[in-house]
Amino acid sequence: MSDGACARPRSAYFRNRMEHPPRNDAFTVAEAQQAIAETIVTELELGMTFLDVAETTRDRRHAWQSIRNAITALRSANRFLSEIEPGTGIDAVQQRREQLTARILAIIDVDDLGSSR
């Protein structure tokens, strides 16, 4: 290793970084914010799909598992929601989140799945 073999790749790396500077950080942050928002929307839509299954299936166990999956999707969305900065379309995401929450509560409260309390 005394032949300097390690030094060449490192210097080549830094030379390459100098020739091709990283993209604009603000643009990269905007891309990350957009990706997080899209992830949240995907989770919320997945939760809605699980509730559709819960409402239409005749198998009570499958219906309750779908409700649990919808709750898990909502929790995942909630975890990422705090990462979105205001002004990133958060209002539409919040509205969809509230719709999923209301739907979960309505299904659990009304208990359309044939459970007797």
Structural notes for this entry:
With 117 residues, the chain is an all-alpha fold. It has one domain (26-110). 75% of the residues lie in helices and 0% in strands. Helix 2 (25-56) runs antiparallel to helix 3 (60-81), helix 2 packs parallel to helix 4 and helix 3 (60-81) packs antiparallel against helix 4. The longest helix is centred in the middle third of the chain and has 32 residues, at 25-56. 16% of the residues are buried. The model has no long low-confidence stretch (mean pLDDT 80).
Question: Which helices and strands appear, and what pairs or packs with what?
Answer:
Blueprint: H1 7-19, H2 25-56, H3 60-81, H4 90-110
Helix pairs in contact: 2-3, 2-4, 3-4
The secondary-structure class comes to mainly alpha
The span between the termini is 75 Å
Strand segment count: 0
Q: Write the element-wise H/E pattern from the N-terminal end onward.
A: HHHH
Can you count the helices? 4
| Proportion of beta-strand residues | under 5%
Helix content: over 70%
* Uncertain spans: none
Task: Please tell me what the overall shape is.
Answer: elongated
Mean pLDDT: 80
Assembly of the depicted chains: single chain
- Overall number of structural domains: 1
Rg, Cα atoms, Å: 23 Å
